[in-house]
């Protein structure tokens, strides 16, 4: 941990803490995605997860870039929220034999992750602007846009999955 809430006094402190939170979250997501790639049965979903793994590596680099621009060392802080989301994703998908139901569960879990990231990047970009750091905000918005695009793609896949089931 190392950064307890009592240490957060200014918006700048909160910005750095939240940057550490998303840094930790992105690294956990990077670790979780290969498992999700293995489990996915739909080819488009598999490819989508593979693409997002590459994007996630880019997100980590951009967060490191923001740390550097802000003059603080890049480090993560435990984020029980993302740990819980990923743990639940693993548990729910672990027992499903039906391929379409499994894919539906994976899509739902991935969207939960995306929404978590979207709220973090949205907040961080807004705070960066308030702190007069439009340069940091611009980098954070790049991650935000990619998470939003991934979320939209997952919605398309989810709707396709439902249609497939309906056709049977
Ligand atoms: Fe990400």
Question: Helix content range of the residues, please?
Answer: over 70%
List unreliable stretches of 5+ residues.
none
Assign the CATH class. Mainly Alpha
First-last Cα distance: 50 Å
CATH topology value: Ferritin
Assigned CATH superfamily: Ferritin, core subunit, four-helix bundle
How large is the share of residues in beta strands?
under 5%
> Major sheet: size, sense and barrel closure?
none
List ligands, each type once: fe (ii) ion
Based on secondary structure, the structural category is: mainly alpha
Radius of gyration, in Å, reads 17 Å
The CATH architecture classification is: Up-down Bundle
Approximate shape: elongated
The total strand number stands at 0
Can you write the helix and strand succession as a string?
HHHHH
Number of helices: 5
Mean pLDDT, all residues? 92
Q: Give the tally of structural domains.
A: 1
